[in-house]
Amino acid sequence: MADPSSTDPIIELTGISYSYPKEQPVLKNLDFELRKGERIGLLAPNGSGKTTLFHVIMGLLPVSEGSIRIFGRKIETEKDFVWVRRKIGLLFQDADDQLFSPTVLDDVAFGPLNMGKTKKEALSISRRVLSFLGLSSFEDRITFKLSGGEKKLVSLATVLSMDPEVLLLDEPLNGLDNNTRIKLISVLKTIDVSYIIISHDIDFLLESTDAIYTLNNGRIEKDTTVYVHSHDHAHMMGNVPHQHD
Amino acid sequence: MLQEPFSVGNSFLHRTDPRFRLVSALLYSIVVAVLYGFFSLIASAVFSLALVRAAGLDGKTVLKRLALVNGFVLLFLLILPLTAGGDIFFSIGFLHIYQPGVVLALQIALKSNAIIMAFIALVSTMNFSTLGHALNSLGLPHKFVFLFILTYRYIFVIEQEYKKIWRSIKIRGFSPKTTLHCYKTYAYMIGMIFVKASARAERVYRAMRCRGFNGSFYTLAEFPSSGKNWLFLFFMLFSTFLIILMELYFYG
Amino acid sequence: MHISEGILTWPVLASGAAFAIAGTGIGLKKLKTEDIPKTAILSAAFFVASLIHVPIGPSSVHLILNGIVGILLGWAAFPAIMVALSLQALFFQYGGITTLGVNTMLMALPAVLCHFFFHPLILRNNQFLSLAAGFSGGAFSVFLSGILMAAFLVFAQREFLEVSLLVIGVHIPVMIIEGIITMFCIGFLKKVQPSLMGG
């Protein structure tokens, strides 16, 4: 793999600000860059604006300030974002938001059909993606009857069927059973795309990303990459398994 | 909550093109709905029963469904004979049973059950996605079919959310009573369901835009053409026609 | 609330279907593409909410909620209600194919009227006025549905008069409960998410 820093950035955000109506800004003068081949983890507390950041990149939330360049192209209008959405795939936190069709095959083919593929092409793309994810037998399954883990993998299939060059994964491990988790990690290792993962799971981020950033006060802290370390500490009930926020 | 007990099966009816089934069910139901003669009504009830048999459906489940939907019909069966006026059929003490009322009530019971049985045999034997595709390829407006499919899909998600809210309300000691407080709780719960539903709708729409949604709606399903479908349609139309003839001959 | 198969005569069925198709056509035309998911998911919510049984004395009734449907959706209440009734026919065999038009009319017409009469009042800042409009809207739509149902029955067959009166009588307690629930629900939505009501 080429040294990421030597290539042009795929995603380049400069001075981005976003606030929800009648609320404090979530993103404040944020700068961010993703280069080809980079795999970045985003670890930050709830409500710090991680999901908002993803939705800003996809043009789902209009920014009040700042500029977005994707593959070197300045992105401003909805039409520009339509182009962006073919290049970048977003995996939503809740698979029920992503899967709306009656059957798995319908859902996976939805993206390719919107991109102007014929029915035949859309079918063959969808079957290829499903088989890549080991879901070939799922074609005619009814989406809402799938288990949580199955739903997540099918959501991933709906994103991959658009052949994105970048993936944005929002809490992909949320509510997954161990098998699906292992499968997802191995898929991420196999596919040749750059990606950003939002997760609270440090082990997962260490395993599947090259750098872990955090979001603080509406800005990405890329200079102070989070270093994972361990140290001893003591408190009551410390002998039972527990988690720290 | 929404179950499709009749959609599983491998009968001839299950395998027939859903579009042919829908169209013939609609035509047949319309004809039965306007019948008056007992000869044709009994014939159509028998024919509908034969369709249910042909679909190989579980008799008990069908009977249970019929019992549930006959509640409204029962109202007519009980009231019409007492109130319709006209010739008195017979009297029990001061209660007069009027002949026109009995006739009308029986007509309603036969019609209603004949139509429902045909619907169960021809339409409820499709699973939902098949029906969605069939409606689409029969040329219903895209927006309507899309609405239909999405509504169905999210009933399941919203039911889960409703159950969560309901559990949390019950855990806090709520018991349903006829009080203002109770109605207020129900109202807030329903309000909460709407709030969650609208947030969900916003996310679903965003996810659709991410996948290039531009208002077009596609279905992949293709219905292989087969001579048997036309044979089925012909059979249904012929039977419907026979029932019309009976009606005209004996009643018209 | 619906009329079963096999009860009405063809002129009533046909005119019900014609009006329902017209109303649904207007609703679909006014429904913007980007509002399809919202309309669908809200009508799924109504579907679920209308299966909730609320107690009334020793018995219970299920809610109809066409008042709130109308207030929130306006003309889109027509396609939304037609979809919900088709699903009920498909899964529970309530209502039916030939009565789909009539049933859509008797639920959706009051809903749309409720939108035009009460929605502007609900949006007012005066809390008393908006709650009163909520109550009236909820009660009015159920009452009007009951009246329409009775009218359809009597138009079909003069002998259905007694059944029709019974139908209206049964709807009076439901009407009051729907009024109360709609009132509180509107109050809740105005506080929690006013944008849902376009306010």
Molecular structure report:
The complex is a heterotrimer of chains A (245), B (252) and C (199). Chain A has a single domain, classed as Rossmann fold (3-Layer(aba) Sandwich), CATH 3.40.50. Helices cover 33% and strands 24% of the residues of chain A. Chain A contains 8 helices and 10 strands. In chain A, the strands form 2 sheets. Chain A has a 6-stranded mixed sheet, sandwiched between helices. Chain A has a 4-stranded antiparallel sheet with strand order 2-1-4-5, with helices on one face. In chain A, a hairpin with a 5-residue loop joins strand 1 (9-19) and strand 2. Chain A is globular, with a radius of gyration of 19 Å. The two termini of chain A are 35 Å apart. Chain B is mostly helical and 252 residues long. Chain B folds into 2 domains: 12-126 and 224-250, no CATH class; 139-210. The two termini of chain B are 44 Å apart. Chain C is mainly alpha-helical. Chain C has one domain (10-192): Arp2/3 complex 21 kDa subunit ARPC3 (Orthogonal Bundle), CATH 1.10.1760. Helices cover 73% and strands 4% of the residues of chain C. Chain C is built from 7 helices and 2 strands, in the order H-H-E-E-H-H-H-H-H. Chain C has helices spanning 10-30, 36-49, 66-73, 77-92, 100-123, 127-156, 161-192; strands spanning 53-56, 59-62. In chain C, helix 3 crosses helix 5 and helix 3 crosses helix 6 (127-156). Chain C is globular and about 50 Å long. The mean pLDDT of chain C is 92. Chains in contact: A-B, B-C. Chains B and C meet through helix 2, helix 4, helix 5, helix 6 and helix 8 of B and helix 1, helix 2, strand 1, helix 4 and helix 7 of C.
